[in-house]
Amino acid sequence: MSTYPWKLSVFLSLIVLFLLYSAVLYCREYKEVLPADVLAQDGKMIWQQKNCVSCHQLYGLGGHLGPDLTNVYGKKGEPYIKAFLQSGTTVMPNYHLTENEMQALISFLKYTSSTGISDPNSFTKHNDGTISQ
Amino acid sequence: MMEPYHNNSFPNSKSFLKAGLVFLMSALFFGLVAALQYVLPGIGKEVFSFEKLRPLHVSSAVFWILMTAMGTVLTFLQEIKPFPNTTHRLVKIQFYLFEISFVSILVSYCFGVFGGREYWEFHPIFSIPIVIGWGIFLVNFLTNNKTLKNQPVYVWMWTTGVVFFLFTYIESNLWLIPGIGNRLIQDMTIQWKSYGSMVGAWNMLIYGSSIYLMDKIAGNQKYSQSNMAFGLYFLGLFNLMFNWGHHIYTLPTASYTHIIAYGVSMTELFILGRIIYLWRKSLTFDRKHKHIQAYWFLYAADIWVFINLGLAIAMSIPALNLYMHGTHIIVAHTMGTTIGINTMLLLSFAYDVLGKKQAEIKISTNFKTAFLVTNISLSLFFISLIIAGVLKSYWQFNNPDSSYTLMLNTLRPYFYVFFVSGLSLVFGFMLLIIPLFKSK
After folding, report:
1. Nearest-CA neighbor of B168 among A60, A49, A19, A53?
2. Residue B1: what pLDDT?
3. Which CATH superfamily is domain A38-120 in?
């Protein structure tokens, strides 16, 4: 007996489920996270154009040469960030950003800090292997 | 009257494999230079800082995978059934589109033009030729495979890989829509959904090709038509579609994405269990195969699959993931899968397609040495990253407010091992790659 109809049914069922799951994720209203304001959006573009993620992480996702910056604004504040942006570090070059670009980047980091907490210490581990914050 | 068409004229399906090997050499070179930043921080930062070196390395590795996977599927398809002339013409267009756009992307990094996405990133303008090129690949594939009926599992896998790559690639560009791009959490969720599935898509092309190659070596289609093969394929497809959430357990996105990913990822235990069950058999280095270079790579990939799948399953448990996320353990896993599994399998295809034919083969001492150097170096490379990751994890949980630079300094001895083993890995790979360029 041919198993082709069964194989095709499983294949098509998985595709339908996948498309439904994708549609739910695209359309979901992220009520807990407001969109970034215009200055923070500009900052996000600078973050991308300078490829900051190659060295830094947001929520533990990104490079390893520099620290995770998700909550740097909340923890260290604007002057701390600005000092690094103005002079660079041993590893990070000075990008010679203008005052406007620095303000946009700081605004973006203020926004990322408002979206959640990335510190793994802030999670509770449960016996079933899940975690919650 | 039209001139007779020369199907083997440059570029053809084998040209993809040769171009892929050049991208592999580029990935090795830039990987090594980038690793220098870990042992000599700040070296050359004004000319080639890390934000240039990392994408040069990562994208070269992705181009190696994509070019070789496409070339292998096209070559194996022709072994099954010769292409019509129209397909040969389209293959040439496909080759030039990818070759020109991939080289242009690498050049754009040198001029500081980035897309700034984690982890496969480039300016979004390059997506246009890539999508057109992949569309041509899809046409070429479907023209020569009109039905799935009675097809072996590898044809199902290739079909899945070709279609899903295009879908997930387009999905990875959804951030360009302002409603998505300006919401960080939604943007990151969709980004990791698309990238997670995209890796699954190109793995379908690679694993499908490895099953085709194993059939060819065995001389029958017993496995590729078996219920077990199809069962594992559907399990793989299920994971490709739904397990990507294990990359973002700490991201404050919809919690059901985490629960689904956790549950789905655990089904991979079945694959791990099967590997252990067949352990003895899979490690038997059959005498009749020991003269086939391609088989050596399949054999190495088998061991790396076992190691990396075990690590992947551990990483998919949220409570364990918490200790590994954001550390070099994730880098070790990425390197282990990209080099240990994907590159070993892709080299097996390259040796099958570009290497000397079986009858002429006598495994040389050079080949054996290069093969051993590569795998031993990769083991040291992998272990050094795991140790660095464990130490970083300890720092994250016990001393997160201390200086990041001081933490990196404590990891430096392991970065030295990482760099030296990386150097020896490059040496081993070069010995394996260079002979392939001598073939016509």
Report:
1. A19
2. 35
3. Cytochrome c-like domain (1.10.760.10)
pLDDT score of B401 more than 50:
yes
- CB-neighbour burial class of residue B251 (10 A; exposed 0-12, middle 13-18, buried 19+): buried
Q: How far is B273 from chain A (nearest CA, A)?
A: 20
Closest CB to A120 among B171, B262, B325? B325
More confident residue, B268 or B28: B28
Minimum mean pLDDT among B47-56, B191-200, B216-225, B356-365: which range? B356-365
CA nearest to A59 within chain B: B251
Q: How far is CA A100 from CA B61, B70, B116, B300, B331, in A?
A: 36, 45, 20, 53, 35
Predicted confidence band of residue B350 (pLDDT cuts 50, 70, 90): very high
CB atoms within 10 A of CB B89: 14
The predicted model gives B184-201 an average pLDDT of 93
Whether B404 and A66 lie within 8 Å, measured CB to CB: yes
A85 min Cα distance to partner chain B (Å)? 15
List of domains in chain B: 271-440 (1.20.210.10)
Q: Do B254 and A28 touch (CB under 8 A)?
A: yes
Asked if A111's CB is within 8 angstroms of B51's CB, the reply is no
